[in-house]
Amino acid sequence: MPVNPPEPDLVTVVANLQRQLLEQQQETNRLREQIAQINQRPQVDEVPPPVHQAPPAYQVPPIVPPVPEVQPEIPRNAEVPMAPVREQANVQPVREDLLYERFRRMKAPEFEGPTDPIAADNWLIDIQVILDFMRLTEQEKVLCASFALKKDARHWWMTVQMRRDVLAMDWQDFVTEFRAMYYNTEILAAQQDEFTSLQQG
């Protein structure tokens, strides 16, 4: 006859169950701790490392130095072409017209060529004051003074133009020519003597 195993002791069964339950609780606690540790870690989004792309290759245009302009060599004895005289002639009258208008506004006295040297010298002084006020060049002074010459004085100035280049004259040249014609020292000395005798009575 088979022998039946002895029935387990109730105390032993309960002890085994309690031991298994304790082991399950320990395993559960261990799993919870692992989960808690995982949750406490900072969540860092994984960013893929930047991909460094090489810049596109391009060709730098070559630097071309400027080609120096070659001036043609002019022989020493070669004649240099001058500006056309016609263009200069077109500019000069405009300049003279403006100069004449300025001089005319000053109402300068005219000179007709009297034989009285005192009157001639007074005119020369008056005209020089106006010319200095206008701040003219030496040649412009001669040009303006010639505008004020009338009648006999105009004819005298025409004779001066025939024997010398009046455009190259300065103001001192004009004064020298003028006094040589109208400033007679002998007549002036005689008039001064007459004036002195009249004052002495």
Q: Can you give a write-up of this model?
A:
The chain is mostly helical. The protein has a domain at 93-200. Helix content is 60%, strand content 0%. It contains seven helices and no strands. It has helices spanning 10-40, 85-105, 117-134, 138-147, 151-163, 171-182, 185-200.
Write the layout of secondary structure elements.
Elements lengths: L9 H31 L44 H21 L11 H18 L3 H10 L3 H13 L7 H12 L2 H16 L1
Descriptive labels:
201 residues; mainly alpha; 60% helix; 0% strand; rod-shaped; single chain
Quick synopsis:
This protein has 201 residues and is mainly alpha-helical.
Q: Which residues form runs of ≥5 with pLDDT under 50?
A: 83-91
Averaged pLDDT, please?
A: 76
> Tally the helices: what do you get?
7
**Biggest sheet architecture:** none
Distance between the termini: 203 Å
- Count of distinct strands: 0
CA-based shape: rod-shaped
Rg estimate, integer Å: 61 Å
Share in helix: 55-70%
Helix and strand composition category: mainly alpha
Provide the β-strand percentage band: under 5%
List SSEs in N-to-C order: HHHHHHH
Coiled coil: 14-41
Keywords: Coiled coil
Pfam family, one: Retrotrans_gag
Protein name: Retrotransposon gag domain-containing protein
